[in-house]
Amino acid sequence: MKVFINPGHAPNGNPDPGAINEFFRIRECDMALSIGELVKRYLIKAGCGVKLLQSNNLYGESAGENIIQSANDWEADIFVSIHCNAFDKTVRGAETLVYDLIGEGYSLGRCIHAQLIEEMQDIDGTFPDRGIRTRSLLAVLRSTIMPAVLVETAFIDNDIDALLLMNHQQEIAAAIARGITDYWQQFQG
């Protein structure tokens, strides 16, 4: 299985760091990359081929390597974009975004989301499950030719979730990797 991992936002935060937690001075681009690198390690140990690309160029709109074209050209079996959500500092939880609720992306999303929520609720019993949501206009879900999901791991602007992101990256990454391998085992079965 070939898995393309896309940690959200621009490398080194330039020009787009994504969401920021000012209190803890953490940026989405850094959290997503750290978690993505850990997911990569887990998947390589599981025998997967993995390519990881963090770029501000999703679909040819910016300089740098084009994420969607790279994933499609590499002929990945699965595409996973990793992000941290933000809203108004009071909202918490994880959600997984998919193109629609009928395709293979949805099946992949269900597997990843189930593992992520189980892990996060084991760590913090109050961690909210925000569910699986459709976002058909997101380029990484719309234009990739393989099953694709975008995982919003937690709300970086919420201090409770930010602490989870800072202190439990191994667990978050392992849950995402387990969800990917769960999906692949179902697909192969």
TrEMBL record:
Domain MurNAc-LAA: 68-181
Record organism: Anaerovibrio lipolyticus
GO biological processes: peptidoglycan catabolic process
GO molecular function: N-acetylmuramoyl-L-alanine amidase activity
Stored CDD domains: MurNAc-LAA
Gene3D superfamilies noted in UniProt: Zn-dependent exopeptidases
Keywords: Hydrolase
Gene Ontology cellular component annotations, sorted alphabetically: outer membrane-bounded periplasmic space
InterPro entries documented for this protein: MurNAc-LAA_cat, N-acetylmuramoyl_amidase_3
Lineage of source species: Bacteria, Bacillati, Bacillota, Negativicutes, Selenomonadales
Keyword Hydrolase: yes
Record-given protein name: MurNAc-LAA domain-containing protein
